[in-house]
Amino acid sequence: MIIIKNADEIKSLKNACIISAGVLNYVGEQICAGMTTYELDKIIHDYIIAHGAKPGFLGMYGFPGSACISVNDEVIHGIPSKKVIIRSGDIVSVDTGAFIGGFHGDNAFTYQVGKVSPVAEKLCRVTNECLALGIAAARPGNRIGDIGYAVQKHAEENGFSVVREYVGHGIGRDLHEDPEVPNFGRAGRGVRLVPGMTIAIEPMITEGSCEVKVMSNEWTVKTVDGGLAAHFERTIAIGANGPEILTNWDL
Ligand code: MG
Questions:
Q1: Which residue, 162, 180, 185, 191, could crosslink 148 as a Cys pair with Cβ 3.0–4.6 Å?
Q2: Cα of 235 to ligand 1 centre, how many Å?
Q3: How do residues 172-190 score in pLDDT, each as one tens digit?
Q4: What mean pLDDT comes out for the span 238-251?
C-alpha cells in the first residue's frame, strides 16, 4: 500500500533527510586513505546522534552498523569493519539512514578517495547523473517505469550495467514502504506518480556485468565479476509541480 504524505509529514521526512544527507556531506570532508570503515561508521554514528536522530539502519533487520559502507566491487550493504582499510584509489559507497520525529531519511553517495582510475571516476559521475535523471522523471503524472527507464538508459548508453536485484523504495514512517522503485524499466509503465508520494531513488550501477552475489556475512552484496559498483541515493517527494529533493544538499 502506498502511503501518501501530507505537508506536515513531508516536513518531518525532510528533517530526517537533512541529517541523513548532512552526514554524507560531513563524510566527504572526513573520508581519507588509511581510515577503516569501522572508524568511518563511528564518525557517521556520532554525527547522527549529535543531531538528535537515531541511525536508521543500526539494528534494522539485524544490520550491525550505523551506515552501509561498500568498497570498490561491493555494491551495497557493506558492514563497517576494523579490517577494511580505505586506500587511495578506492571508491567507497556510503548509505546512511537517520530516524527522527517518526520518519526515516535515506541517502547515499559514492566517494572517490585519492586518485581513482578513469573508469572509477566515470562510473561515479554517470551513476550520479543517473540519479539526477531518475529524480527529474519523478513528476506527477509520470509512472514508476519512467524513473527506471531514465536511469537504465543513461547507465547503458555509457557502457555500464544496472543491478536488478535491489531497488529504490517508498519511504516515510517505515524505511521501506511501497512502491518498489527499480532502476530499470519501461517508460509509461507501473504505478502512477501523484503528489505526496515519497520515495528513495537509488541507482546501483556496475562497471561490468550486472550480476551480484551476497557474501557469507549474509549482508555485503558484491559484483560477481569483480567490477566496480557505485550507488547514489536521494529521498524525494513528488510535489504538485515536480520532484522535491528532501535535503539541504544539492546534487
Ligand atoms: Mg534506500
A1: 185
A2: 8
A3: 999 999 999 999 999 999 9
A4: 86
CA angle 241, 171, 234 (to 5 degrees): 65
Residue type, 43: I
Q: Could you tell me the distance, in angstroms and rounded to a whole number, from the CA of residue 113 to the centre of ligand 1?
A: 23
Q: Which residues, in sequence order, are CB contacts of 233 under 8 Å at separation 6+?
A: 95, 106, 107, 108, 109, 131, 168, 200, 201, 202, 203
Distance between CA atoms of 224 and 201, rounded to whole angstroms? 24
How far apart are the CA of 104 and the centre of ligand 1, in A?
Answer: 10
Q: What is the pTM of this model?
A: 0.97
Average pLDDT over residues 212-232: 98
Q: How many A from CA of 135 to the centre of ligand 1?
A: 14
41 Cα distance to chain centroid: 16
Neighbours of ion ligand 1 (CB under 5 A): 106, 200, 202
pLDDT-derived band at 36, boundaries 50, 70, 90: very high
